[in-house]
Write a structure and sequence with these properties.
mainly alpha
């Protein structure tokens, strides 16, 4: 499958395309940022998608995996609350090592496979944002050093966080791709 075949830009689930107002705006912005991220992987081999091109540990396939995980975890948070994400303050070195694997394309993984997983996670996120009864409904955040103790996030705030995370990593991906072969995503 090609990146274009796996993209959801302009092809949202029926519930998502029926979204109006704020929901439609959130989904349109998220769809655009996902497109920028996926576009950085166009015409790459699995080997290229797993290649580090900068001083960081990041590779294009790993960024797709990470953003997929981000969407899945935040959707679970909306549906189940902080228990879905666990207590980050209790993570072991082994837990952190597994988390680090999100940023790499591991042996046996393919770019087509991680893009397909991303498309499925995106579909679920879009469906939830389009259909959740109340964007203002909130949950307490899980314990983590980067969250304010006792803070709560609404569905709206989670959607904005997913957009910000996707946009940030699309920028990272653009730099990695340009370093790989000179190709540019946004200019």
């Amino acid at each position: 499958m090609t990146v274009d075949e796996l993209t959801t830009e302009g092809k949202s689930p029926a519930d998502a395309t029926a979204a109006t107002g704020e929901r439609a705006d959130l989904l349109a912005i998220l769809t655009k940022q996902r497109h920028f991220l996926r576009f950085t992987t166009r015409d790459l081999t699995d080997e290229q998608a797993g290649q580090r091109t900068t001083a960081s540990e990041l590779c294009l396939g790993g960024l797709i995996k990470h953003v997929t995980s981000v969407e899945r975890h935040w959707v679970a948070f909306i549906q189940e609350g902080p228990v879905a994400m666990g207590d980050f303050t209790a993570m072991t070195e082994a837990d952190w090592a597994r988390r680090a694997d999100e940023f790499r394309l591991l042996p046996g993984e393919t770019l087509a496979g991680v893009l397909a997983d991303y498309a499925e996670a995106a579909r679920r996120t879009d469906e939830l944002i389009a259909t959740v009864p109340d964007l203002a409904a909130s949950q307490p955040l899980p314990k983590a050093p980067w969250f304010e103790p006792g803070a709560r996030w609404s569905v709206r705030r989670v959607a904005m966080h997913i957009i910000a995370e996707t946009a940030q990593h699309a920028g990272h991906a653009d730099i990695i791709r340009e370093s790989l072969d000179g190709a540019k995503t946004m200019g």
